[in-house]
Specification:
The protein has 276 residues and is of the alpha/beta class. The protein has ten helices and eight strands.
Length: 276
Amino acid sequence: MSMPFAGISGIDTHAHIFLQDLPMVAGRRYNPEYDATVEQYLAHLDACGLSHGVLIQPSFLGTDNHFMVEALQRFPERLRGVAVVDPEVSDLQLDDLADAGVVGVRLNLIGKALGDYAGAKWQALFQRLANRGWQVEIQRGFADLALIVPPILESGVTVVVDHFGLPNSAIDLDDSQHAAFFDALGGGKVWIKLSAAYRSESDLARATHVLARLRKACGGVERFVWGSDWPNTQFESQTDYTAQFTLLEALFPDADERRMVLVNNPAVLFGFACAS
């Protein structure tokens, strides 16, 4: 009998690597003053007993994914990637990213005007990603998710929502304006990344409450994954890798559920199960 998750002890689905002297985009919100290398990241995985990880292209590096791609090529068994691309990216460029281990595209929409995601330009990209079995990963405040997620889902692509959906402490999760987003969660094509609770001012109690609401909307934990958000940019002095892993353990004291979130779910979503 095959064992689809053999050799997978845990997957961290959200981390960034960069060098402070890499070319960076104009108008960026953050300027790193240190290096975050793939070797450092793998050391954190090892220390927590995790076998695999997912690198997310940092927004301040724009669409130049080469530093992440080089790391993916060096450690193809352990790593996958999520890239940042222009909507007009060529199929050849997507092929090259796929060959390196990229399985999705990220839209970091913090501080940006929302695009017309139901329009032809974006829908064409999303449909191409759907045909490849890729995902679209979204970072945006909770209040706007109902405007973003449903039109993207129209393309047939899988959507991953970052950082619990960024529900800051002022957000009432049961407000009727969020109904469209919660309805989308029930449709089976939206995944939630349980990462960076600190980015929405959530302590364990708040994160537990948010998780309960998301679990109810999703009908279980089968589309939850976990990410460390290492190196916790802009919050380096407030948290670290171990603290983020400890939070996950507190959120999922049940070992079977924790294994779903750490192993089974992300192995399928990011294609690790296919390669094991």
